[in-house]
User: Fold these one by one.
Assistant:
Number 1:
Amino acid sequence: MNDTTAPTTTSTASAAATPTAEARLATFRARRQESVVQPKGSLALINTQWIDSEQTIWGVPGTWAPAEGGLRVTAAASDSIIVDGAPVDGHAIVRGKDNAAPSEIIFSETVSGFVIAGDEGKYALRVWDGASEEIREFGSIDSYPYNPAWVITATFTENPAGTTMGFEHLKDNGKTREQVIPGDISFSKDGVDYNLVAFKSGRALQLVYADATNGVDTYSVGRFLFVAPDPDGTITLDFNFAVLPPCAFSYNFNCPMPPKQNRFAVAIEAGEKNVLKKDGSLLHEV
């Protein structure tokens, strides 16, 4: 008798411990809300300024100029700039994020920065304020309810090594940036065949897409979905976990635009919609 009842108890406990899809999504969204208000969260970015000559930078002290592998800052001790733990009194080299040991900059209790690398050896300073106006105004990330119709099992077909495609970015005036495309993502839904592209982002693939909700119910530029192929050649596209791009939170980001094959003619009513202020109005309109 004991042998027959024990598995039932264990099975019931395991089922109870497995969160539902809705519960997993609720946890994900709660973490997203917390992440965007962090000192280097998306709402904290107040400036991204590219440096091609000696100049000042809005929002922070010092004079900034190009340098090998990053930027050179010139400041007095009274400017209270700290680079890699040391106060700047004269000159300091600020290493870019493309360096194995990038520099960290502190301007005040709430304002910090780091240097990012761009094309053709150019560098920019990104300035973050943990008490930014956007953080103070932020109310919530508006999202669709869980929608099982937009959980898609697709096929992932690997591309030859080194396959790339040009992605246009919001502020690049039509210029494209080559991104490695590890494979094609294909599926059929409601009688329509889709063949999507996603570029590598860390260990995941980043799908940049647009659909018929953009500019109506959702942020006009598009949305992101991060996915990973399974060993059996399938890949799950759960659009309930779609997120707004960083540029929906701060105009100081330069987001990739959805390529032609990632533009859906239908409305994908799943995932994040818009960033809202405390009064329920849109934080940013694009």
Number 2:
Amino acid sequence: MTVAVARLAAIALDSDDTLRLGRFYRDLLDLAVVHESEELVVLRADGVMITVERVVNHQPPDWPADSIPKQLHLDLFVDDLDEAEAAALALGARKPDTQPAPDKWRVLLDPAGHPFCVTLPPTGR
């Protein structure tokens, strides 16, 4: 049995209208609003959060055609960013050059190229 590197924290959805999509999922799933702004909506579910993150010029997926693929990423809580990053890299992740807030979270790419973030949990969890 292996020891987990991280804990599933959030499923993050891209949108050009965070408030509209956040309110949709709030009402659809009866979730609590943790944070709500034009840039980010955070909803709390049992044991995990759903975030809606603003992406300028977002184009929705055209499933099933897939010329514009599905768009979401995982946020994973970790206790130590450096250790989690090293462990994920050892498992086959890659680290892109762009790191928006490396003291708070690290963007990594899974072996298929999907981005995911290892992040420190908010204080008072």
